[in-house]
Amino acid sequence: MARFYGRIALLVLLILFSSLPTESAAQVADLPVIPRPKHVVPGSGVFRLRASDKPVIDAPAEIRVRLSDYLKTCGSVPAASDKEKSLSRLNIRLKDTLPGVSSPEGYVLRVSGKGITIEATGEAGLFYGLQTLLSLKEAGTEIPFVEITDEPRFGYRGLMLDVSRHFFGKEVIKKEIDAMARLKLNRLHLHLTDAAGWRIEIEKYPLLTDFAAWRDEALWKKWWAGSRKYLPKGTPGAYGGYFSKEDIRELVRYARTRQITIVPEIELPGHSEEVLTAYPWLSCTHEPYKEADFCAGNEETFHFLEDVLTEVMELFPSEYLHIGGDEAGKASWKDCPLCRRRMEEEHLRDTDELQSYFIRRVQEFVEKKGRKIIGWDEITEGGLSHGATVMTWRGTEGALTAVKQGNNAIMTPGAFCYFDQYQDDPTREPEAIGGYLPLEKVYAYDPVPSGLTPEEAERIKGVQANLWTEYVPTAAHLEYMLYPRLLALSEIAWSPTEGKDYPSFRSKALKALTRLRAAGYRTFDLAKEVGNRTKAVSSEPHLAIGKRVTYAKPYAPQYEAGGGAALTDGKRGGWSYSDGLWQGFIPSGIDVTVDLGKSMAVREISLDFMQVKDPGVFLPEEVTFYVSEDGKRFEKLTSVTHVTDETRPVDYKTYSWVSEDGKPLITRYIRCEAKPHKRGVWLFTDEIIVR
Q1: Rounded CA separation 654/334 (Å)
Q2: What local confidence, expressed as pLDDT, does residue 84 receive?
């Protein structure tokens, strides 16, 4: 049976070289190309390739072979013979210079009555020009006469796949590489190691794949909430897997043909439970199942990491090596004799500086091997060394710190680039980690923060989507979370900000999804998108808008949602508690009083709450409503109780008092109390509605 990833390529080429009649295309004002090209000059007329048209690739032999190999994966398409070259209507040429193109990834594509030419100054440019040509033909029309001059906005255009939490083998990765190539993405970041499993063969440390790559539960969520145990390879029922060295070499070759560089990530110093259980003497306690962080004071730690990174760098030719650096708890470092001695010897003030020492030492080793490091934005804590590239995920602060110190940054903030979030109504979607990141929000993102100087802005080298897979156990689910949001990310990464137009993009995305599904990809159905929570989109006026609120119990400062005015500002929350519109309270519940300013006739009082179970956001067990004329003596109206259904990962509920006989009561003050779930966890509400 033909490989699945080959089928999309075959489909593409059959479309490109089909001699069957196609739908007529008069004038194409909005080219059906994702990502959107930089500069387009439309012509008048259309062109249709014949089955007899054979491509002429005018480039050095090595490049010609790679492009030919790529075309062969689409089906057998022989290049033109010497006799046929003069008659060819499809020419692909490498040029020394090209007007309007400054990047080797840029190209010029011309379609006229004489034929089609793709010109570029680099191999990648020829490849991307071919992708644009394929997109023009895939639209189901004849190819319009056009001249396109195009090049990317950013040099780093990435996708991160987490293969630790749930392992996806090389055939799955190849399939996603095919889609990335069509979208002109050029970096595949593989998160190869984490607590959930080690996923790459290291010959010097066989327990990493004979033990640390296998666990006793297939679903990460169940494993993390349960035993968190690892199993020897071959144990009946063990879940896991890893890439052999030959697997990696095969993936690297496959990606290279598609102009994609694979960036490996080896997590350190944290997120290393699997390593420290297999090799416990590398932790501070020397006990298995006790630690997540490498011991920073132990020389054996650095010997181990240098051995591992040496084998990794032998497999991956990537300029960059990702070393993680995020969410290290460092709890044991404070009391570890070896870590304390290291801090004394190196004159380090705290564990943040000890982590900085750890990162710098690894960086020096990597740079001696001729490579560079990338780390998550926590590597800025304790001091950032020159030459390190920061991949910022906690907003933009990490990037700002980096570029102002002269370092480079790659943007991947969770609010816009974390594709493990819900992309539509969470009550109708497969369970996700939380949040709400629809296609439109991804498309709206600009990776260059405002306020940077031109020199600082130049240090923003690119943008990346991240798909963490705690809640993504299958390849089908992985693709569902990627598409169509990866289409938007590709346009952010490649296209200029001028000319962005979401309605036009969405229309093209709908067609692109149809083609992806025809090629075997399992995608989100954008045509049936619900969109944001209705109350957030069209809020209604009510009596309490703008009225003063007194808090007997404080809101959490990290979820203030506008502070003291948040609950009467007329703004309703969306699907996510992190959208800046839901106000959070922990752990003692809610007790707030609204002053209407004068006595009013009131028929209804209500508050909305949400439940997102895994991060500990629950619906209240009870909400009580009171009224008062003087703000001192309150009369209880009602208590609304609720029994939490903990099987529902996401839920929304309105708690209200409504006049039973329809007659209003006259009151000035309204008090609302919400008793938290028995666990004493988070409550979130967005507005006190008074009618």
Answers
A1: 47
A2: 55
Span 33-70, pLDDT tens digits: 999 999 999 999 999 877 667 789 999 999 998 998 88
* DSSP class of 602: E
221: its two tokens: 């969520």
> Residue 307's CB: how many other CB atoms inside 10 A?
14
**Residue among 196, 180, 363, 162 at smallest CA distance from 265:** 162
In this structure, is the dihedral angle defined by the CA atoms of residues 448, 450, 453 and 456, taken in order, positive or negative?
negative
Bridge partners (DSSP) listed for residue 156: 462
Three-state SS at 673: strand
How many Å apart are CA 659 and CA 637, to the nearest integer?
Answer: 9
First to last CA, the chain: 65
Q: Give strand pairing partners of 324.
A: 268
User: pLDDT for 205-241, tens place per residue?
Assistant: 999 999 999 999 999 999 999 999 999 999 999 999 9
363-417 pLDDT, tens digit each: 999 999 999 999 999 898 888 888 899 999 998 988 999 999 999 999 999 999 9
Q: Tokens at residue 590, please?
A: 């809610």
87 pLDDT band (50/70/90 cuts)?
A: low
Residue 9 pLDDT level (bands cut at 50, 70, 90): very low
Give the three-state DSSP class for 222: helix
- Residue matched to tokens 């749930």: 166
Q: Tell me which residue has tokens 């089909």.
A: 18
**Dihedrals φ, ψ of 619, to 5°?**
-65, 145
595 CB-near residues (< 8 Å, 6+ apart) = 547, 548, 549, 550, 631, 668, 669
Alpha helices, DSSP H, located in 183-243? 207-210, 220-225
Q: From CA 547, how far away is CA 528, in angstroms rounded?
A: 39
The H or E element spanning position 302 is helix 299-315
Task: For 139-205, list the strands marked E by DSSP.
Answer: 143-150, 156-162, 187-191, 193-194, 197-198
Query: What is the distance between the alpha carbons of residues 421 and 470, in angstroms, rounded to a whole number?
Result: 11
Q: Over the stretch 386-400, which tens digit does the pLDDT of each residue have?
A: 889 999 999 898 899
- Residue listed under structure tokens 């046929």: 84
Compute CA 526 distance to the chain's CA centroid, rounded to the nearest angstrom.
18
Which residues belong to the active site? 194, 271, 327
